[in-house]
Structure formats: C-alpha cells, structure tokens
Design brief:
The structure holds two protein chains of two kinds. Chain A has helices at 4-14, 17-34, 41-48, 57-82, 91-102, 106-139, 144-161, 166-180, 206-223, 243-265, 270-285, 297-313, 315-321, 327-338, 346-350, 352-385, 388-407, 410-428, 433-456, 468-494, and strands at residues 183-184, 191-192. Chain A has one domain. Chain A is built from 20 helices and two strands. The two termini of chain A are 40 Å apart. By secondary structure, chain A is an all-alpha fold. Chain A has a two-stranded antiparallel sheet. In chain A, helix 4 (57-82) runs antiparallel to helix 6 (106-139), helix 5 runs antiparallel to helix 6 (106-139) and helix 6 packs parallel to helix 10. Chain A is globular and about 65 Å long. Chain B is mainly α. Among the domains of chain B are: 40-98; 107-172, no CATH class. Chain B has helices at 23-33, 40-64, 76-95, 110-129, 132-146, 151-172. Classes of the chains: A mainly alpha, B mainly alpha. At the A-B interface, helix 5, helix 8, helix 9, helix 17 and helix 18 of A face helix 1, helix 2, helix 3, helix 4 and helix 5 of B.
C-alpha cells in the first residue's frame, strides 16, 4: 500500500486549521449563493471565483472544493422547497422532494438528500483515489495527437449531450474556440484579433468570461420574470430523517452511489443522466411504484446520491486527462489553472502534494457539507424568503465588484458586463453557454497540440490515424458527430405515420 | 432573482391541485409556463449573426496569413474554426429555421435591458466617482422599478447593501476598488 502514503500526507495538509476554515467558508458561501433561485452550481462557482484569488494555491483549491459541494447542495434546497431545480441534475429531485415538502417532510427530504450526497460523494472520491492514478499512468503516454483528439472529442460530447439544439451548442463551442485565439499566438508571437487593444494582447482571461456568461448572464435572464410563483415554507422541521426513512432510503443511496460513479466518468451530462437513471431504477425496483411522484423518500435519496457521486467522479477525466467533462468541470479547470495547477496525467507524478490535496479536499468538503447543511437548513429557508427583487441587485454587485478585485482592473469588469450580455442573448436564442466556456478553456490546449502534432507529421493530417489511440478517439469523434444525424433521419422516416410523442426538455440552468 | 408580481404563475390550476400533479404533468406544466417561442425570424437573425462573426473571422484570419499545415502562420487555426462556424451558421440558417428553442422578446425583456443600462453606467462611472453612488443607484433601480419594492424598503435596503459592500471591500478587505468616501 505504498501508493497510499501521498494520500495520507495530503490529509495532513488538508487538515490544517486554516485550510479547514477556508473549506468551511467555501461550503457556506457556496450554499448561500447556490440557494438563490435560478443560480445553479456553474453560476455560483463563477460568481465566487474571485474569492479564491490571493489565497495560497492549496488553500484556494480546498476552498473551491467547498464551494463546489455547497453550490451543488444549494440547487437541491431550491428543488425541494420551491420546486425550482437549480440545474438539470436536480430536476428529478423536484418530483418527490417537493411532494415531501408539501406533506411537511421538507426537512426529511433535505436531510436524506444531504446524507445521500455525502455517501455518494464519498464513495466516488474513494473510487477516484484508486482509479485516478491508474488512468493517469495510462495517459502519460499520450502525445500531442492524442490530446488533440481527446480535446476535440470532449468538446463535441459536451455540445451534443447538452439539452438544447445540437447545432447551436456546436456554434457556441466554435465561438469559445475562437475567443481562445484572441491575444498573442504562442508559436509566432503575433497578435490575433486584438484590434490594437493592449488589454487584449495577453488574451481574454477565463474568469471574466465565466463570470459574465454564467453569472451575470443568468442574473439578467432571471430579471425577465418568468419563474413559477413559489413560496418557501416558513419553517422546516425534522431535518434528521427517522430510522425508518433511512432504512427505506438506504438501498437507493447504495445503488445511486454506484450508478452515479460510473455514469459520471463519461463526458457530457453525467450528473443529469445519472440522477434520471437512478430515479427510473428506483421506481422500477419499488414494490409500490405508484408512491413515486407522491413523496417517496427513495425518489429523493437515489437521484441526489447519484448526481453527487457523478459530479465527483467527473473529476476523474479532469484530473487525470486534463479534459473537463462538463461546464462545471470547465470552471474547476479554469480555477485550478489560475492557481497554477494544470490538471493532467503528470499531476499525480510530478506534484503529488497538489494532486492529493485536491482529492482530499473533496473528502473534507463533503464532510463539512454534511455537518453544515442539516443545522443550516433554517438559515437557507430564511434566505429563500428574502424577495428576489432584493437578492438580484446584491448578486449583480457581488459579481461586478468581485470581478474588479481579480486584477484591480476596470477592463475586467467591462468584459464581465459584455459577456453577461452575450450570455443573456445566448440563453434567449437557445444557445447553451456551457459548450462555449468549455471550448474556451480547452482552446489553447487544442490549438497547440494540433499544431505540434502537425509539425510531427510534417503537415500530413492522416498521421492522426497512424496512431492507435488518436485514431480510436477520432473514430469515436466521427461516430458521435454523425450518429445523431443518421438517427434523426431514420426516426423521421419511421415517424412519418406515427405521431411523435411530446418530449419534455427543461432548460438547463447553469 | 425576479420581481414578485401579483399574478399567479398558473392561473388555470388552483393551488391545491398542485399537490396531485404527477411528474409528467409537472413537466408538461413547466413546458406551458415557458416563455413564448420566437419565430423563424429570430432564428434566422441569430444564424446571420453567427454567419457574420464567422465570415469576419475568416477575413481577419486570411489577413494574418495561413501558411501550410507543416508551417502554419497565426491565421491557420482561427481560419479553421471560423470555417466550421460559417458552415454551422449556414446549416442552422437552413435546417434550424423552424426550431422552437429561441425565446421571444416580450414586454418583460425591458427589465434585463434596464438592468444592463444600470450595469453599463456603473462601469462607466466607477473610475471617476467611485462605486458607492452608482451601486446605490443600481440597487434603487433594480429594487424599485424592476422589483416593485416599496420606496421605503428600497431606500433602506439599498443603503444597507451599499454600506455592507463598503465595509466588506473597502474597510475589511482593503481592496483598491475606486471609492468616493
């Protein structure tokens, strides 16, 4: 068990009082912002990014883990109490969670959700602890061609799995790649798309883009009142689930953990798919499936466990390959880059302290989440009762002033507003903002590895197919790109006679 | 995040009936509550904007020089992306014109516009007169006019919020945010 030594050393770092304190602050603030209706985890993390500046890297990462878990849980609270899912992955929680709240069991629902989240998250981190080094060692052989193929595939998968129109998601991704080229060309040093602006010469920072598109864009979008009128219950009692509730939910928590872990590794909407799969599985397994949708505890515990397990295991592709699997991971990627940590296969070998610091901070974030969420539920209910009209300007100001503090520059604030408008318009016109941010984050990696591999191949693009791994990845890329087109063509032919069943798509809140 | 308006979101369904909605009904109800979809014109307009950006980027990349795959100039990679973008834009213009995923701009869309104006003003004024007064104005506009709060609560809460931000960013964190006082 030699390889566990760095793991244990990592704990020593994480357990320092300062780090614990920052993690605690992260969890609480993450929940506070995440609980605001309409702001999902990605928006929450984006708005809070400036907090992690000017803090030591390890501490900042630990704080980020706290924010990450807090933001995830914030969405659950609004699902249960307001019937407002913060993000696509807690949509199914609404079905039974809100019903439980109507029956006066909101506390039980939230308690089960946080216990489930804790179990699922922790199981996933344990899985990650063992799996990540293996994947990383496999990926150490990856060269520039493999990375180009992997980055391309990652962007394509996120674009095609997103909930909106595929073409629009791909357009957003292309725009993200284009934005990533602004600034100095790494190879020749020439300026690109800077239009003579000195501020743009070093390229656009990731943070103003994320804060604008996810944060301010979402705030502007929410100003256009269209939320379902919802009123939070004034008091939530019995947060601690009873023994019989726990017993009833234990099986679904166990199944959700495993399901979520494996689905979460896949790129794209891991957390969303796994929460839905878990709900479907629990309903199928139940002796009285008719209880579902009427406040079945398993219907909350299962999906909430699965989505947290998936959210955690989606760190595996990020930390071992350096490829974020979804929009939230793209934010974590950007946040880690700011701290000087480049996620990728070398991280485990070259920087074990940081790698295990990141992983272990998740254990702590998860535990703190469990400890904080139950006693603080009352506080969140109070926040939910503060009128949205008051919360909106406060969040907007936090975003603007926070953006200023990153580099003490007004230019960043301007960028945030500009990207806020872009984000708002994108949502209005049905373009998912997630692929843009993800593609932006991967843009420079993609370009440099593409150009490097073309140099190696002497300018011959068929060289990509001469290497087994890059060839496989590209084959999958082509398959993913072409398959939906073929499928919809076939479906159209078949559905000519049969009326298409109405599918329901819920706009994803990021 | 939204102003609370007296109109109930689901006038058709009395509150008591909400209890009995199945997940499917709930989802269908959400679907109904979605804002009206924009027509073909909006879809065409967004595709044209994409095309415009794509074509512009193609021209600029050509100006930077393409080079060859083996010896690329700075423009090659942006050129490739912008070509993809033009292709996607054309595809969207033709195939996606009947998509229903864009939202119509309604009377309510003036709220984000107003919000944007206050944000832009704040960005413009902050370097000269500090953040306090623009932030106060922003709070007042958002709470009173976008959120229909009463004047009393607007003024009290705005003052408290700006005071809290002053305390946090100027006194406690000692950041260099431009401030008047």
């Amino acid at each position: 068990m030699d390889f566990l030594n760095p793991v244990i050393n990592g704990f020593a770092v994480v357990l320092e009082p300062t780090n614990l304190l920052y993690c605690l602050v992260g969890v609480v603030i993450g929940m506070l912002i995440g609980v605001l209706p309409g702001l999902g985890p990605a928006a929450t993390i984006a708005i809070l990014l400036p907090l992690t500046y000017n803090v030591e890297p390890v501490t900042a990462i630990i704080m980020l883990a706290g924010i990450f878990y807090g933001a995830q849980y914030g969405g659950t609270i609004t699902s249960v109490l307001l019937r407002l899912p913060g993000e696509a992955s807690s949509v199914v929680t609404v079905f039974d969670g809100y019903q439980m709240a109507r029956q006066g069991k909101a506390g039980t629902a939230l308690g089960l959700a946080s216990i489930g989240s804790f179990v699922g998250g922790t199981a996933s981190i344990i899985g990650l602890t063992f799996l990540a080094p293996i994947v990383a060692s496999f990926a150490l052989d990856f060269g520039a061609p493999e990375y180009s193929a992997l980055a391309l595939l990652g962007i394509l998968l996120v674009a095609t799995i997103s909930s909106g129109a595929k073409t629009k998601a791909l357009i957003a991704a292309a725009l993200g790649l284009l934005l990533a080229t602004v600034g100095r060309d790494v190879f020749t040093g020439e300026s690109r798309f800077t239009f003579g602006s000195l501020e743009l010469a070093d390229g656009i920072d990731f943070v103003p883009i994320a804060m604008g598109i996810f944060g301010l864009g979402e705030i502007l979008y929410n100003l256009e009142e269209r939320h379902r009128a919802a009123k939070a219950p004034s008091k939530v009692a019995n947060v601690w689930p009873s023994r019989s509730d726990l017993k009833q939910a234990a099986g679904s928590i166990g199944r959700g953990s495993i399901l979520g872990f494996f689905l979460g590794i896949l790129p794209g909407g891991g957390a969303t798919i796994s929460s839905m799969a878990s709900y479907a599985m629990e309903k199928k397994r139940a002796k009285q499936p008719e209880r579902f949708g009427k406040g079945a505890p398993e219907g909350v515990a299962g999906p909430e466990t699965a989505n947290n397990a998936a959210a955690t295991s989606s760190f595996i592709p990020l930390l071992t390959l350096g490829i974020p699997a979804n929009a939230t991971m793209a934010l974590m990627f950007g946040a880690l880059l700011i701290q000087g940590v480049t996620p990728g296969p070398q991280l485990v070998e070259e920087n074990p302290d940081l790698f295990w610091g990141v992983v272990n901070s998740m254990y702590i974030g998860n535990i703190l989440l469990l400890i904080m969420s139950l006693p603080l539920v009352g506080l969140f209910v109070k926040i939910l009762r503060v009128r949205a009209a008051i919360l909106a300007p406060v969040t907007a100001l936090i975003t603007l002033l926070g953006a200023y503090t990153i580099n003490n520059s007004m230019f960043d604030v301007t960028l945030v507003v500009v990207f806020g408008v872009i984000g708002y318009l994108m949502k209005k016109f049905g373009f998912e903002p997630g692929p843009l941010v993800l593609a932006f984050v991967l843009g420079s990696l993609l370009e440099s590895s593409l150009r490097r591999s073309l140099l190696v191949f002497g300018g011959d693009p068929t060289g990509f197919f001469g290497r087994p791994i890059s060839a496989t990845l590209l084959a999958v890329f082509v398959l993913v790109a072409v398959l939906p087109g073929i499928r919809s063509l076939l479906a159209k032919r078949r559905a000519a006679a049969v009326a298409e069943p109405g599918t329901v798509q819920i706009k994803e809140k990021v | 995040m939204i102003p609370v308006k007296p109109t109930p979101a689901v006038p058709a369904v009395p509150d008591g009936d909400l209890d009995d909605l199945t997940p499917e009904q709930l989802a269908a109800q959400w679907e109904e509550e979605k804002p009206p979809a924009a027509g073909a014109l909006a879809n065409a307009a967004s595709s044209l904007v994409v095309l415009g950006v794509g074509v512009g980027a193609v021209i600029l990349s050509l100006a930077m020089g393409l080079g060859t795959p083996a010896a690329p100039q700075p423009g090659l990679w942006p050129f490739m992306i912008s070509c993809v973008m033009v292709a996607l834009g054309l595809f969207q213009l033709v195939i996606g014109r009947h998509n229903r995923d864009a939202e119509k701009f309604t009377r309510m869309s003036t709220a984000p516009l107003t919000g944007l104006v206050t944000l832009a003003l704040m960005v413009a004024l902050m370097p000269t007169i500090g953040f306090e007064l623009p932030a106060l104005a922003l709070c007042i506009v958002w709470m009173r006019f976008l959120g229909s709060e009463t004047w009393r609560s607007t003024l009290v809460v705005s003052a408290v919020v700006v005071g809290a931000f002053y305390g946090l960013f100027v006194l406690a964190l000692n950041t260099s945010i431009p401030h008047l006082f």
